[in-house]
């Protein structure tokens, strides 16, 4: 079929449609049966071998490739399964499947210009502003995830303070603050922006793993006394280790009084603005200068789908805008509609990621998405009760949102063994972390498919391991 082909498109579109329909059927069955089978299984050796083939000179054709794609379906991370509780993964959804079909047929580039896809992104930016109570003038950008969103937000914060775009940062005196529970993406952004990760101070936390405000004030005063220039404060809304929320309203007060840029890392927790249970914990986020969060975590859009929201559009644009000749815009025609996404971030070519986000919100609405978050919070509390009732287990942190961390009383080795056996057996996937110096089973429930029964299965599994 493929030898000497001059046409890259299918030679027989009807045949192509039949293969595509078969693959679509397999994909829908995969999603419909998300709870069947093991949560995770190793990628079979013969399939690993298939992925070590020589560079093909002649293609195998669309039919063969469609069959190979269908074969991959069962070997994901496992995060579509109701008993996936590892790290912080969203569980994804059917709306993304629809969106990806349309996006694949359009092959739109969302770096800029005036075409239908751009209006979808504008719509989602407007929806995000509304979600967080930001003014209509705020700007936003769809990115791969919170790590990238953090780089974009922190660049806007840096450039608002330092004239560094052309000259580089040089010897600078800027320092920022985040709790010692903040995600590593913040320190990485400081590194990549030339500020250096040492310029990010790690503020201690209280017993609830929230930033210690008294310690923050002391550290800031000491830095000022040393001639340094505090310029930003990073609040965490949903810490990756234990799911804690900093007191964002208190941070907003301090940022205002001290003239700091307030950035919120709400990778999964910011979605809590849609949940009656978590909304009170997010009070103050509407006063932030920037927010980074993911649609691919607690809002269950398929990977990858992150977002950065910036209060001051002019400062956001000032950090990225540039006008090379080949990107000149016009008032009419396809090159109209400036500013474009390229004016708000580092990427020029950008896929139609936002379509998945739009489809998820349009299909399900914010109420159902928020209710699923609230249900996960209730499930985390339920699991905590079960852990507390088990004499051989010890809970290591209060439950603030979706995360429960606990250890086996016999020590770190047994605690780790529990997690590894659950993963390898395919029964459930928690992950391992360290809390206050102790190894912990970490169960994070950002999963709309989890039912209370799944938590009982998990606990039976934990008890089953203990027998050994
Ligand atoms: C997941 C996570 C990140 C990183 O987000 P990515 O989308 O993986 O880049 C940052 N902060 C927190 C709190 C997270 O949970």
**The CATH C-level class name of the largest domain:** Alpha Beta
CATH architecture of the largest domain: 3-Layer(aba) Sandwich
Shape: globular
Strand content range: 5-15%
How large is the count of helical segments? Answer: 13
How many E-type strands? 11
Question: Helix fraction?
Answer: 25-40%
Structural class: alpha/beta
Give the N-terminus to C-terminus distance in angstroms.
56 Å
Query: In the residues, how many domains can be counted?
Result: 3
Biggest sheet details: 7 strands, mixed
CATH topology of the largest domain: Aspartate Aminotransferase, domain 2
Report Rg: 24 Å
In CATH, what is the homologous superfamily of the largest domain? Type I PLP-dependent aspartate aminotransferase-like (Major domain)
Bound molecules: pyridoxal-5'-phosphate
Mean pLDDT: 96
| Order of adjacent strands in the largest pleated sheet | 1-7-6-5-4-2-3
Order of helices and strands: HHHHHEHEHEHEHEEEHHEEHEEH
């Amino acid at each position: 079929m493929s030898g000497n082909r001059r046409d890259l498109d299918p030679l027989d579109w009807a045949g192509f449609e039949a293969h595509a329909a078969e693959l679509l059927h397999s994909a829908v069955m995969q999603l419909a049966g998300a709870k069947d089978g093991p949560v995770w299984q190793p990628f079979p050796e013969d399939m690993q071998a298939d992925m070590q083939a020589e560079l093909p000179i002649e293609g195998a054709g669309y039919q063969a490739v469609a069959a190979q794609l269908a074969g991959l379906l069962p070997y994901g991370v496992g995060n579509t399964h109701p008993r996936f509780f590892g790290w912080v993964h969203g569980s994804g959804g059917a709306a993304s499947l629809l969106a990806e079909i349309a996006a694949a047929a359009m092959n739109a580039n969302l770096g800029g210009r005036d075409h239908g896809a751009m209006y979808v992104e504008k719509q989602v930016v407007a929806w995000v502003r509304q979600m967080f109570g930001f003014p209509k003038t705020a700007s936003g950008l769809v990115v791969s995830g919170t790590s990238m969103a953090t780089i974009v937000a922190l660049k806007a914060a840096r450039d608002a303070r330092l004239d560094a775009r052309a000259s580089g940062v040089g010897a600078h005196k800027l320092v920022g603050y985040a709790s010692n529970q903040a995600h590593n993406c913040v320190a990485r952004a400081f590194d990549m922006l030339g500020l250096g990760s040492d310029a990010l101070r790690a503020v201690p936390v209280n017993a609830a793993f929230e930033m210690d405000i008294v310690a923050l004030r002391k550290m800031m005063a000491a830095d000022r006394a040393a001639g340094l220039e505090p310029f930003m404060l990073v609040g965490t809304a949903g810490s990756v280790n234990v799911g804690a929320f900093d007191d964002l309203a208190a941070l907003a007060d301090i940022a205002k009084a001290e003239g700091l840029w307030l950035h919120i890392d709400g990778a999964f927790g910011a979605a809590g603005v849609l949940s009656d249970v978590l909304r009170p914990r997010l009070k103050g986020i509407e006063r932030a200068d920037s927010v980074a969060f993911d649609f691919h975590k607690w809002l269950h859009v398929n990977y990858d789908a992150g977002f950065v929201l910036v209060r001051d559009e002019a400062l956001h644009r000032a950090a990225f805008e540039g006008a090379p000749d080949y990107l000149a815009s016009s008032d009419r025609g396809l090159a109209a509609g400036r500013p474009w996404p390229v004016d708000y971030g580092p990427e020029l070519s950008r896929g139609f990621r936002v379509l998945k986000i739009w489809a998820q919100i349009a299909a399900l609405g914010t109420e159902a998405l928020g209710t699923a978050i609230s249900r996960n919070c209730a499930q985390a509390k339920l699991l905590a009760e079960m852990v507390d009732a088990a004499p051989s287990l010890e809970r290591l942190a209060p439950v603030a949102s979706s995360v429960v961390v606990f250890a086996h009383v016999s020590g770190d080795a047994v605690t780790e063994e529990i997690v590894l056996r659950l993963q390898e057996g395919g029964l459930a996937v928690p992950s391992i972390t360290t809390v206050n110096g102790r190894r912990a089973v970490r169960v994070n429930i950002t999963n709309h498919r989890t039912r209370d029964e799944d938590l009982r299965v998990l606990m039976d599994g934990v008890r089953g391991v203990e027998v050994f």
